[in-house]
Amino acid sequence: MNRTFGFSSAKYKLLMVKRAMSSSKAEEPVNEQAVANKFAAMRSELNQIYSKITELEMDVSEHSLVINAIQPLDPSRRCFRMIGGVLVERTIKEVLPAVQRNKEGIEEVITRLNEALERKKKEITEFEAKYKIRIRKNEGEEKDDGARKEGTAQGVLVGPAGGSE
Question: Global pTM?
Answer without folding.
Answer: 0.68
